[in-house]
């Protein structure tokens, strides 16, 4: 967690320096397009400030009022960042439309291009670094901040190309057109972050995590695990909460059931990158399960096994035993 805080602090300090540089470029050029880039930098600083706090809060241990921990704050952090980006893009479009009717004189374009080019390079390098670290640390906050910085770098590249075209052609409307295009691009990226955060806050299932868990279970399944169903995943920051039902032979005693449940818990925690809390409900098998059950020398088998079932995400997330979707040959 200290690593995450240090990385966000680095992003925050860098964002402040780059914001000042972009506003300097705006003041010496009076370019509406450069002002657009500078305005987005304010969002970078505000988002990094909140991200710094969210990483601190997500590391606070569970308490009586927050039995699942404080990890959800990371989704709220992404929501704030996406909302700020969306608002910035909207303001940029409004100002660009204003400049269509009230254009401003441009000066010192080459000097402004030089300053903006440096900020774009720094933003891209820092964003790529944060994305790499976010995968290693499984941090949504670092991921959102890294994607935002890389998006900012791409928009800066488009801005630079447009400013160069403006410099060589002298067509001033290019400056306003750039602001409009960048504003729409920024709003779209803000929407994507908002969509991701709302999905997390609403406990939308993470398809990739579910697929990873199903693959682990499929590759390591034991004969006694007759089927797995009602598999659900919730994410709380850097922790996962999973629950499912596992069908076991109905003649297993409590010690055997506990052993199988513990084995599944251990298997998942050893093979996923996030700390995982696994709640498993054990179901007894029924005669209808026999046609896909692989238990050898079963003392209560009512019919031979006639079918093999490959576990898939679509099958395991359903809240029914597998005999309701398969029929014996």
Q: Describe the strand arrangement of the main beta sheet, using strand numbers.
A: 1-2-3
- Category from helices, strands and their pairing: mainly alpha
Number of helices: 9
CATH architecture of the largest domain: Up-down Bundle
Level-1 CATH class name of the largest domain: Mainly Alpha
Helix content: 55-70%
- Oligomer classification: single chain
Task: Please report the distance between the alpha carbons of the first and last residues.
Answer: 54 Å
Please tell me the total number of domains: 2
SSE run = HHHHHHHEEHEH
Give the rounded overall mean pLDDT. 80
Largest sheet: 3 strands, mixed
- Stretches with pLDDT under 50, minimum 5 residues: none
General shape: elongated
Fill in the CATH topology of the largest domain: Alpha-lytic protease prodomain-like
Kindly estimate the percentage of residues that lie in beta strands according to DSSP: 5-15%
Task: Provide the gyration radius in Å.
Answer: 27 Å
| E-strand count | 3
CATH superfamily caption of the largest domain: Cation efflux protein transmembrane domain
Q: What is shown here, in short?
A:
The protein is mainly alpha-helical and 329 residues long. The protein has helices at 2-29, 32-58, 73-101, 109-137, 140-169, 173-201, 207-220, 254-271, 313-316, and strands spanning 227-236, 239-248, 275-284.
């Amino acid at each position: 967690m200290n690593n995450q805080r240090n990385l966000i602090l680095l992003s925050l300090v860098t964002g402040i320096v780059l914001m000042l540089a972009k506003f300097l470029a705006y003041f010496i050029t009076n370019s509406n397009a450069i002002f657009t880039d500078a305005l987005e930098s304010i969002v970078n600083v505000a988002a990094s400030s909140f991200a710094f706090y969210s990483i601190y809060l997500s590391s606070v241990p569970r308490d009586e009022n927050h039995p699942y921990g404080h990890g959800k704050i990371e989704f709220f952090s992404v929501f704030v960042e996406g909302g700020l980006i969306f608002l910035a893009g909207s303001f940029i479009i409004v100002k660009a439309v204003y400049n269509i009717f009230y254009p401003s004189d441009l000066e010192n374009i080459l000097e402004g291009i030089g300053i903006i080019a440096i900020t774009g390079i720094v933003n891209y390098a820092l964003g790529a670094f944060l994305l790499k670290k976010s995968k290693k640390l499984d941090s949504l906050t670092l991921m959102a901040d890294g994607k935002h910085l890389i998006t900012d770098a791409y928009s800066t590249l488009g801005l630079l190309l447009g400013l160069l075209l403006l410099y060589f052609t002298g067509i001033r409307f290019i400056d306003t057109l750039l602001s409009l295009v960048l504003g729409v691009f920024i709003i779209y990226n803000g929407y994507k972050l908002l969509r991701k955060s709302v999905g997390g806050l609403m406990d939308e299932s993470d398809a990739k995590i579910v697929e990873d868990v199903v693959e682990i279970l499929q590759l390591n399944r034991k004969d006694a695990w007759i089927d797995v169903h009602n598999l659900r995943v919730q994410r709380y920051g850097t922790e996962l909460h999973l629950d499912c039902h596992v069908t076991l032979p109905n003649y297993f005693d409590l010690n055997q059931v506990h052993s199988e449940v513990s084995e599944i818990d251990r298997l998942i925690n050893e093979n996923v990158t996030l700390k995982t809390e696994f709640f498993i409900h054990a179901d007894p098998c029924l005669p209808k399960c026999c046609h896909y059950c692989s238990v050898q020398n079963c003392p209560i088998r009512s019919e031979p096994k006639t079918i093999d079932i490959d576990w898939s995400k679509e099958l395991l997330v359903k809240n029914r035993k597998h005999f309701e979707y398969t029929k014996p040959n």
